[in-house]
Amino acid sequence: MEKEENMLSIGDVSRFLNVPTHTIRYWEKEFKEFLSPARTVGHQRRYTDDDVRRIRDIMRLLKHDGYSIAGAKKILELKHKQGLQESPHQPVQNGIPEDMAYKIVEMIRTQLNVNPMEEKAAVA
Known about the structure:
Elements: H1 10-17, H2 21-30, E1 38-39, E2 45-46, H3 49-64, H4 69-82, E3 92-93, E4 96-97, H5 101-111, H6 116-123
Antiparallel strand pairs: 1-2, 3-4
């Protein structure tokens, strides 16, 4: 598991992917086999880069490719069985190549003045 300082809150993920937090929570319930974020001591969700990729895959399957939840689950199951970590499509989010995603997340943290040490203190 990643260090908590490298993890994002649900609000950060929501802003990054432009998906409402209630939608992310709903997808967690519907896709619990594939999406299970870590929790802080205070039960706040913390998402890894892999979690963000899975949410992006779910979003693409449901919103862009037009699959039902059942259909999206089947595709994710096949991906899991085949051991594929990445989407079969060129990974792009809002026109941004995935290799830039980490840098963007860091920029968001900087703009939000998110200090990992302050987050740790709040959790402790």
